Amino acid sequence: MALKKKLYIFSALIVGLAAIFLFVKNYFFAVLIAALAVSLLTGWNRLWQFRQNEIQKLTRDMEALSRQNAALSEEIDELRRRKWNVADIRHILDLGIMQINTAFTRTWDKKFKHGKKEVYFIGALKVHVSARYGIDLKDLRFRYVPEQKKLFIANLQPKLLAFNDINYIWEIAEILEYKKPFFGSNYWRKSKELQELGAQIKEELRLRTHEEVKNGPEEMQWVLDPVKTHLIHTVKWLFHIPGIEVEIADSAGEDYLPLEEFFTNFPSASALPQATNDSSAEKA
C-alpha cells in the first residue's frame, strides 16, 4: 500500500508539472507529461490487478489443500480407531506330508464350425505345479477300544491341500480356417479374422484347466499312493500313546468321533491310565 501511495504522489506531481507547462502555454510538454502520468497509472493498475488475482488463486489453492489435508487426517484417525471387521474365521489343521513339483501337458485337437467357416484348433498347454499333499486333521475320525487297547483312526485319505505355485505356458496354440479355392486342392491356413476367437478359446481352456487343477488333476493322482504310505506312518507316530496300538480303519462307523471331540473326552476316560498301568504291570 505504501508503494501504491508513493506512485499516486508521483503521478500527482507529474500532473501538476503538466499543469504548469499548460499554464505557460507549452502544450507539447504538457501533453507529453500528462500521457506519461496516465501510462504509469494504467500500467500500475494492471500490475496490481494481476498480483491480486494471483494472490486470490494461491489462497484458494491453499484452502483446498487445507481441506484435503483435514479430510485425510480424519480418515487416518478413523482407520486407527476402526476395529477389525471379521467376516469369517476358519480353524486350519492341515498335515502336509509331501510337496510335489511337477508339470504336465494338456492337448486339444478340435475341428468345429464357426458361422460358415470350418475351424481347426490345435493347442498344447503345459502346466507347472508346486502342490502340497496331505490331510485335514479335522476330517479324521477316532475310536478307542479299551478291551483291545487299540486306537482306530479312519478317513485317512490324502488329498491336495494347497498350491504354492501354478504356471501355464502355451507351447502350441494355432487356429486354422479350411479354405476351398475354385482351383487347386483344399487346405488349412491361418486367418487374422480368427485370432480373437483363438484368444477366447485359449482363455476358456486355461480357465477350465485351472478349475480341474484346483480340484486335483488326473495327471497327479499317481502321487496319492506314496503320500498315503507316508501318511500312515506319520499319523501312527503323531497319535502314538504308550501302551495303546494305533490301527488305520478303512471306514468310520457311527461310534467314531472327530478329533476335537474325541481328545477332549479321551484324557478324562479311565481307559487311558488303565491301559498304561496294565502295560507297566505286564512288563513288571
Written description of the protein model:
It is a single chain. The strands form two sheets. The chain has a four-stranded antiparallel β-sheet. A four-stranded mixed β-sheet has the order 7-4-3-8. The protein has helices at 2-23, 27-81, 195-214, 224-238, 259-265, 271-283; strands at 94-114, 117-136, 141-145, 150-154, 159-179, 187-190, 245-248, 257-258. With 284 residues, it is of the alpha+beta class. 46% of the residues lie in helices and 29% in strands. A hairpin with a 7-residue loop joins strand 5 and strand 6. Mean pLDDT is 76; it is low at 268-284. The chain is built from six helices and eight strands; from the N terminus they run H-H-E-E-E-E-E-E-H-H-E-E-H-H. The chain has two domains: 2-78; 94-266, no CATH class.
Topology:
Elements: H1 2-23, H2 27-81, E1 94-114, E2 117-136, E3 141-145, E4 150-154, E5 159-179, E6 187-190, H3 195-214, H4 224-238, E7 245-248, E8 257-258, H5 259-265, H6 271-283
Parallel strand pairs: 4-7
Antiparallel strand pairs: 1-2, 2-5, 3-4, 3-8, 5-6
Oligomer: single chain
Shape: elongated
Number of helices, counting only DSSP H or I runs of 4 residues or more: 6
State the helicity in percent bands. 40-55%
Q: What class would the helix/strand composition place it in?
A: alpha+beta
Rounded mean pLDDT score:
76
Whole-number tally of structural domains: 2
Radius of gyration: 44 Å
| Strands in their spatial order, largest beta sheet | 1-2-5-6
Distance between the termini: 112 Å
Q: How many DSSP E strands?
A: 8
- Largest sheet, if any? 4 strands, antiparallel
Helix and strand succession? HHEEEEEEHHEEHH
Poorly predicted runs = 268-284
Strand content: 25-35%
